[in-house]
Q: What sequence folds into this?
């Protein structure tokens, strides 16, 4: 006998989905949560960060339209933006999320879980057993090893999304998604912001993405410094932070935010009791089953496949279904693109960075495709020259790129950079996941005049087969 069919450790958005999909298939399920039900995405990441950004994006968009810009008589109201952000986190109260668990008949165990053996955990001295256990403990913010930084009590991504006052000045260390979004958000709310990135912005994306985002940041008034690295950070008795860089310059700010990396949320889980190592990413197969086990699953950030909420929820849907199938002795569909696998993790991951301009991408960059040995041809087009873009904003600036696998005649990657491109991404995702042949894409007619006409221009640049 076991207490539950499935125990999910971690009640964030990903853990909730694992639990929900398994329960819908008839399993008894409990989730264990040491903090807030709803997790990082709901309270310190996706939702609050986008709420911080959205109002300034709307004002900036209005200022780019003749006839609308004349009606914009001021900047965003920072206090109102922060209050709206607070509403999206329910003021960091998880009562509504707890009510959802109750309505779904999923048990909630409050506390910190430790694995004590195969199919067994302990929470605050009480043992629980299950046929399967899913680790959905996410990732945690890490600090770069800069002397004095930890002692200066810097902001991490949690503080960067939950602060209740706009700092007079802010240094953001890191040019990735979190760093660039938070730099944009706080600059738009009135802070004097400097962003320092050792290797430039948006590494791992198409090169023009980081270049256009940096241009947009500078237009917003952000001091973007690339190729520099902090060597020392000190906070004085007045609360001011002095940062010294490896080029010999110094900068004094009210706050410093470190956004340079994430570590697996696997510390102190008791993994050594089952032959695994605490504090490391967990290796899984495409059903999210941890390598070397037949009962332990790792879903979301913790498996390091794609550190994105929507991708973790995609994994969660597959994991919840496959756990139920295995517990109930039903067939498992683990073939590529089957019901019980997360095949898209490998080469069809969509992602949006909500800077101004936005960056929306799916699949492989040209460089990544070449590294995989794919016979690649890539085409680019000026997104600002599309009629729909000209209507969207006066002086629209943007870029699009399509990466094609020549041997198969299908799109393997698409990147859009520009205002409002986030909502264009799903068509690209469908094209990549569906491996839609280029000759068929010619028959997918974009409505005129919309920015989606970029698809026709990319195809024309690529050339129609004879």
A:
């Amino acid at each position: 006998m076991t207490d539950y069919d499935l125990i999910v450790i971690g009640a964030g958005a990903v853990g909730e989905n694992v639990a929900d999909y398994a329960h819908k298939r008839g399993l008894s399920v409990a989730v264990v949560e040491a903090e807030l039900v709803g997790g990082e995405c709901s309270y310190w990441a996706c939702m609050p960060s986008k709420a911080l950004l959205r109002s300034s994006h709307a004002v900036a968009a209005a200022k780019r339209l003749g006839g609308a810009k004349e009606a914009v008589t001021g900047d965003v109201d920072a206090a109102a933006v922060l209050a709206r952000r607070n509403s999206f986190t329910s003021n960091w109260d998880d009562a509504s999320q707890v009510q959802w668990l109750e309505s779904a008949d999923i048990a909630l165990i409050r506390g910190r879980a430790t694995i004590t053996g195969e199919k067994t955990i302990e929470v605050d001295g009480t043992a629980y057993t299950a046929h399967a256990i899913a680790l959905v403990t996410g990732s945690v913010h890490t600090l770069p090893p800069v002397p004095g930084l930890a002692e200066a009590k810097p902001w991490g991504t949690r503080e960067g999304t939950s602060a209740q006052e706009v700092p007079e000045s802010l240094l953001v260390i890191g040019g990735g998604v979190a760093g660039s979004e938070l730099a944009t958000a706080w600059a738009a709310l009135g802070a004097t912001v400097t962003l320092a990135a050792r290797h430039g912005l948006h590494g791992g994306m198409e090169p023009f993405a980081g270049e256009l985002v940096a241009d947009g940041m500078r237009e917003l008034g952000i001091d973007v410094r690339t190729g520099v690295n902090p060597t020392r950070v000190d906070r004085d008795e007045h609360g001011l932070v002095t940062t010294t860089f490896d080029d010999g310059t110094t900068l004094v700010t009210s706050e410093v935010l470190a956004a340079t990396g994430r570590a697996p949320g696997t510390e102190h889980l008791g993994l050594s009791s089952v032959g695994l190592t605490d504090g490391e990413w967990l290796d899984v197969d495409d059903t999210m089953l941890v390598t070397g086990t037949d009962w332990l699953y790792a879903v979301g950030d913790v498996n390091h496949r794609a550190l994105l909420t929507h991708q973790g929820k995609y994994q969660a849907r597959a994991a919840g279904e496959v756990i139920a199938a295995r517990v109930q002795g039903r067939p498992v569909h683990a073939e590529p693109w089957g019901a019980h696998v997360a095949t898209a993790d490998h080469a069809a991951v969509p992602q949006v960075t909500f800077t101004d301009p936005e960056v929306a991408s799916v699949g492989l960059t040209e460089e990544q495709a070449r590294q995989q040995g794919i016979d690649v041809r890539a085409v680019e087009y000026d997104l600002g020259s599309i009629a729909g873009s000209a209507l969207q904003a006066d002086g629209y600036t943007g870029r699009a790129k399509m990466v094609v696998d020549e041997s198969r005649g299908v799109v393997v990657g698409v990147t859009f950079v520009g205002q409002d491109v986030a909502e264009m991404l799903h068509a690209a995702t469908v094209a990549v996941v569906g491996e839609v042949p280029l000759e068929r894409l010619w028959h997918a007619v974009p409505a005129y005049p919309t920015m989606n006409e970029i698809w026709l221009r990319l195809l024309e640049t690529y050339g129609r087969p004879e």
Observations:
- The first strand starts at residue 4 and ends at 9.
- The longest helix spans residues 309-328.
